Amino acid sequence: MKTYILRRVAQSALTLLGVSVLVFVILRVLPGDPARMLLPDGAPESAVAELNRQLGLREPLIVQYGLFLRSVARGDFGQSFQYRAPALRVVVERLPATVQLTVAAMLVTIAAGVSLGIGTAVRRGTRYDVAGTILAVLGQSLPNFWLGIMLILLFGVALRWLPTSGFAGWTSLVLPAVTLAAFPTALVARLTRSSMLEILNRDYIRTGRAKGLAERSVVLRHALRNAAIPVLTVIGLQIGALLGGAVITESVFAWPGMGKLIVDAIFFRDFPVVQTVLILSATVFVAINLLVDLLYTVIDPRIRYS
Amino acid sequence: MREQHSRPDHLGRRDFLAVTGTALALASAPALAAGQAKRSGEIAAGLSERMLTLDPANHYSISTTSVLRHLFDPLVDVTNDSKFVPALAETWRPVNNTTWRFTLRKGVTFHDGTPFNADSVVFTLRRVQGNAKLIKSFVYQDIESVEKDGDYGVVVTSKRPFGSLPAHLTMLGMLPASAGKNEEAFFQKPIGTGPFRFASWTHGDQIAMTANPTYWKPGIPKVEKVTFRFIPELSTRTAALRAGELQVIDRVTPDLVETLKGTRGVKVLDVPAIEAQRWIFQLGKEPVKDQRLRQAISLAIDRGVIIKELLRGYGRPVDSPVPPGLIGHMTLPPKVYDPEKARQILKQAGYANVSVDIVLMKDFYPKQLEITQAVAAMLGDVGIKLNIKNLEIASAREQRTAGTYDLFFSGWAHMPHDPDWYFGQWFTKAGSEKLTRYANPRVEQLIAEGRVPDAKVRQAKYEELERIVWDEDAEIWLYYTVAIYGVSDRLRNFEARRDYYVLLSDVSIV
After folding, report:
1. Is residue B230 less than 8 Å (CB to CB) from chain A?
2. DSSP-derived secondary structure letter, B6
C-alpha cells in the first residue's frame, strides 16, 4: 500500500514537470507576439522589439525555461504581461470566485445528479424515468451560453429576483452555479442511473430483498455503494473540467474566475498568467485524482494494489 | 424641594445648549443646503473593455482612459467637439516650433492634501519619456527636456516639432512626484487630483471610487460614489442595464438598440464617433500594389448599403481620412459606388479572375464578418474573388507583420483627437514598415511639416496629403462608426462622447 502511494506521488510530480515544459514551449512556439498585443496598433516596430526584450522573450528557449524553473522554485511565477503585477497574485485574486463557483456547481451536480439518477433508476420505465431522462438529455445538449443568458433574462431582468451578473454575495452565485452545473448534473444523472440499474439486477440485491431489508436500505446502503465507483470517477474528472472549463459561464455572468482569466491571457499572449494557471490547475487536478484513487481502496475492499 | 434661583447673569445649562444648538444650526445651514445640492447617490457603469492597470502612463485603452480620468486630471482636457480646454494647465503656448510652455493651475491638491505644482508635471513627463517599459513611452520619445519655470510653469522642448503634444497630454494623468519613491506601492492605492478618490479594485473586474470633496472645480462631482464594472459580454452588459444594476453602458451594437429603447427606464444615446473603419492594403505586394486594382475594389463597394442595412444606419459616410471636428478634416470627393467602371478598369488593366485575401481579427469589430461577406459578394460581381481569413487576433497581427495578406480589416479611433499619430504610423515609411508598407516621399514630407504647432499650417499640410492618399486609394475607408450608449433615465447630464469615453464627474443621479 505504501509503495503504491509513493509511486503515485512520484508519477504526479513527473506529470506536473511534463505539463510545465509543454505549456512553456507551446506558448512560445505559437504565432503571436506578446509585445504587439500589449502595445496599441499604432506603436512603432522599435517599441515592439524593445518591449519584447524587456519581457525577457529574446533569450533562447532553454534559458527562458531555466530562469522560469528557478523562479518558480522561489514561488515567483513572473509578472503578468497584461497587468504588470505578479502573475501569482493576479491568479490568486481569482481563487475565491473560482472556488465558490466550482464548489457550488459541484454540490448541485452531486445532489441533483445522483438523486435524479437514483430516482429514475428505481422508477425505471415509468413516466418519471422518461421525464428525468429528457431533463438529463437537455442538460447535456443545451449550450451553456444560451442557458446562462436565458436565466439572466428571466430571473435577473424580468423577475429581478437575482443579480444579472458579477461576484457579490451568495445571490449572485445561484445562476452561474446552475448554468455551470447543467452539463455535469446531466452526465452524473445518466451515469448513476445506468450504474444503479446494473447493480440492482445483481444477485446480492435480490438476496437483500429476500432477507427482508427495507427497500430504502437496499437501494441506498447496498446498491448505491457499489454503483458509486464509476460515478466517483466522473465526479473527480468533472472537478478538473469545471475548474478550467467554466470560461463560458464566467464570460456570460462576468464572473471573475480563472477560466476567463486564462482565455484572455491566451489571447493576449500573457505567458506568465497562462503558465501559472495551467500549472496550478494541473497540480489541483493531479492531487484530486490521486485522492480519488486512494478513495477507491476505502470504498471497495476488493480493489487491492500491489 | 429646594428652590432653584436662576441667576440673571448665568445661563442655565438648558438655555446654553439651546442657544449654542441654534447658533450651530444657523451657521451650518448654508453648508448643509449647499451640501444637499452638491453630492448624492451612486452611479454604476458597465464598460466592455477590461481595465488592466491604474497607471495612466501604462496603457492605451479607451476604457482605462475613461476610468482614470476620474482619479487623475491631465494638463489639458478635450471636449466632445474636439476643443482643447484647460484642466491642470491654465494656458499652454508654443514658444517656438519645438518648445511648449505650460502655466499651471494654482490651489489644486492631491487626494492626500499635498499641493499640485510643477514638480508633479516634471516627474510625470520625465517618467513616461524615460521608462521604456511603459506603454505610452514611445509617444513621448521626441521630448528632449522638461524643466520647471517657477512653481507653476513648465517648459517642454522636443527634438522635432511636436504640435500634437497638448492633444496627447489629454490622456496622461498627472502623478504626485512622491509616487517615484515606490511605484508598485503607489499604484496599489493611487493618488491623483481628480474628482474621485480611489476606493478599491480587482484586476480586470471592477473599480470603485468615492467623491473628492476638495476637488478644484466647484460643484463637481455630483455623486458620492462611482463604480465601473468591466463586462465584455454585450448581452450581460445590457441585461444589467435593463435590470437597473447599471446606469450606463458603452459599446452597444445596432441590433440591440431596439431592445434597449423598448425597456422602461432606459434610453439610447448615439453620436458619430471619431473612428473610421478601414481596410488596409499590403502595398508592397502584388496584386494590390497596383493602384488600378485598389481603385476598382473601392468602386465595387456600396458603402451606403453597408451603413443602411448592416449597421442599421449607425454609421456615417467618410469624406476624409480624418473625422469631422479634428484638425485636418476636409470634404473630399465621395467614394462612389460604380461597379461598371470597376469592371472597365479591371478589364483595361488585364485583371481577369483576380483573387485577394482579406484577414480579419476575430470578433474585434462589431459586424466585421457580415460586412466582409457582403463586400465579398459585391467584389464577386465585378470579377474579384475575396478570400476571407477570420483569424485569432494575435495570429492575424502576425500575418500583418509578416506581410502575408492583401487586405486587412482595421480601424482607427483618432485618439487623442489629433491625426498626427495616424499619419505618422500609417503613412510614413518607418511607421508602416511592418503594416501597410506605404511609401510616398511627398506625403512623408507633408507629415513632417504638419508637426508644427501652428494650426493653420497643419491644416494646409494635412489637406494636401489627404488629397494624395485619397486619390491613391491607399486605404479603403468604409465608414465612420457611431458610438451608442445605453443610459438609465435616472441620470442627468450624461454626454454621449465621440471618443467612447464614459465620463461621470458632472453627472448626477435621481
Report:
1. yes
2. P
**Residue closest to B70 by CA, chosen among B90, B47, B48:** B47
Of B287, B290, B333, the residue nearest B477 (C-alpha): B333
Grid cell of A11 as nine digits: 508519477
pLDDT in tens, B10-35: 555 555 555 555 555 554 444 444 44
* DSSP assignment letter at A42: T
Instruction: Give residues 241 to 260 of A whose Cβ lies within 8 Å of B.
Output: 251-254, 256
Chain A interface, best mutation among B52, B128, B418, by max A CB count within 10 A: B52
Is the peptide bond between B86 and the residue preceding it cis, with omega within 30 degrees of 0? no
Q: What is the DSSP letter of B477?
A: E
Provide the H-helix boundaries in A55-170: 61-73, 87-93, 95-108, 114-122, 127-141, 144-151
Whether the pLDDT of residue A289 is over 90: the answer is: no
A164, B240: Cβ pair inside 8 Å? yes
Nearest 5 degrees, angle CA B264-CA B268-CA B273? Answer: 170
CB B270 within 8 A of CB B484: yes
Alpha carbon A62 to its chain's center: 31
Find residue B101's DSSP bridge partners: B93, B155
**Which residues of chain A make contact with B138, given a CB cutoff of 8 A?**
39, 43-44, 46-47
CA distances from B272 to A94, B26, B275, B327, B499 (A): 38, 50, 8, 17, 9
Q: What is the pLDDT of residue A262?
A: 87
Kindly give, in sequence order, each residue whose CB lies less than 8 Å from that of residue A163, ignoring residues fewer than 6 positions away: A156, A169, A171, A172, A175, B243, B245
Q: H or E element: which one contains B197?
A: strand B196-202
Q: Is A71 left (phi over 0), alpha (psi -120 to 50) or beta?
A: alpha
Measured between CA atoms, how close is B422 to chain A, in angstroms?
7
Q: Which residue of B50, B133, B393 is in closest CB contact with A54?
A: B133
- Residue B229 in contact with residue B44, Cβ under 8 Å? yes
Mean pLDDT is lowest, of A12-26, A40-54, B139-153, for A40-54
pTM: 0.87
